[in-house]
Amino acid sequence: MIPPSLGDIPATIPSLGPVGEPVAGVVGHPIGQSLSPVLHGTWLKRYGIKGRYEIRDLPPDNFALAATKLLDSEGWVGMNVTVPFKEAAHAYCDILDSAAKRLGAVNTIVKRKDGGIEGRNTDLYGFRANLEAADGWADTGRGVAVVLGAGGAARAVIGALQDLGFAEIRIVNRNQDRAKSVASDLQQFAASKLSVGTYKKLPKWLADADFLVNTTSLGMTGQPELDIDLSPLPKRAFVTDIVYKPLETGLLAQARARGNATVDGLGMLLHQAVPGFVAWFNPPEPPVVDDALRRAVLEAIGQ
């Protein structure tokens, strides 16, 4: 699958850092231990590109001022944007790709050669690319998809599932108002029926599902486990989890043990990084998401 908007990327690096090398980075608050420097550092070394990828914790009260300082005063060519700035980044950019417009959030900013500030959402692409690279995905039906959660990540996942042609997407969330808001915002973009329900509906909703995904933080290291019964789920269904620490979550272990095809969430992180790297560092070809990259990232998270 070709990363989105590659045709719109300028043929040359749009701007350079103070030492003549392209500089990009990831911003958030609190930024924690982001894996983005590992990804981009691996690719910079692989392609012999003289560039830098940094990490910055920005003050939460004025994203626009902080982003402008990085792009103008410090010469960054662009940035990855993580929580809590994805919506602020959407408002900050003067050019938006179709995914960013659709999802109302930006996770990748590119300072274009013409000076424009372009915002992209590559989470949708990353999720879809991870599925399409997975064993067993090609045989998955496009009938019913069940999505656990209704946060920002769920929006990107639902957008991808719409594009993949699922007939119905069932959004399961404790906060029904949030789930209804997601469904209302995204229904207009595809023919997929978007349904909303609580976890009480899950046994019935799993019974004819072709696909199940967890978009919540449940099951992540340090968080409570995702406690659901998969017995109603057909064994033909494909199961994934956007959590990648641990690499095999309780949900994936349970699904794999009963014979469902699965894929972990690490690939979404890796694939979503590709379009930004191409835009900022102008490699000779789009970087490959391969076993070597996975090993570098897994080593960084101690797995």
TrEMBL record:
What are the residue boundaries of the Quinate/shikimate 5-dehydrogenase/glutamyl-tRNA reductase domain, all occurrences included? 145-217
What are the catalytic residues? 86
The protein's superkingdom reads Bacteria
Q: In which pathway does it act?
A: Metabolic intermediate biosynthesis; chorismate biosynthesis; chorismate from D-erythrose 4-phosphate and phosphoenolpyruvate: step 4/7
Keywords, alphabetical? Amino-acid biosynthesis, Aromatic amino acid biosynthesis, NADP, Oxidoreductase
| Record: residues binding shikimate | 34-36, 82, 107, 123, 244, 272
Q: What is its EC number?
A: 1.1.1.25
Identify one Gene Ontology CC term for this UniProt entry: cytosol
Gene3D superfamilies, from UniProt? Answer: Leucine Dehydrogenase, chain A, domain 1 (3.40.50.10860), NAD(P)-binding Rossmann-like Domain (3.40.50.720)
Q: CDD domains annotated for this entry?
A: NAD_bind_Shikimate_DH
Reaction(s) catalyzed by this protein?
A: shikimate + NADP(+) = 3-dehydroshikimate + NADPH + H(+)
Q: Quote the InterPro entries the UniProt record gives.
A: Aminoacid_DH-like_N_sf (IPR046346), NAD(P)-bd_dom_sf (IPR036291), Shikimate_DH (IPR011342), Shikimate_DH-bd_N (IPR013708), Shikimate_DH_fam (IPR022893), Shikm_DH/Glu-tRNA_Rdtase (IPR006151)
The Shikimate dehydrogenase substrate binding N-terminal domain extends over 26-109
A GO MF label: shikimate 3-dehydrogenase (NADP+) activity
Q: Which residues bind NADP(+)?
A: 149-153, 242, 265
GO BP annotations of the record are: amino acid biosynthetic process; aromatic amino acid family biosynthetic process; chorismate biosynthetic process; shikimate metabolic process
Classification via NCBIfam families: aroE, PRK00258.1-4
Q: What does this protein do?
A: Involved in the biosynthesis of the chorismate, which leads to the biosynthesis of aromatic amino acids. Catalyzes the reversible NADPH linked reduction of 3-dehydroshikimate (DHSA) to yield shikimate (SA).
Subunit = Homodimer.
Per the record, the similarity remark reads: Belongs to the shikimate dehydrogenase family.
Q: What is this protein called?
A: Shikimate dehydrogenase (NADP(+))
Query: What organism does this protein naturally occur in?
Result: Pacificispira spongiicola
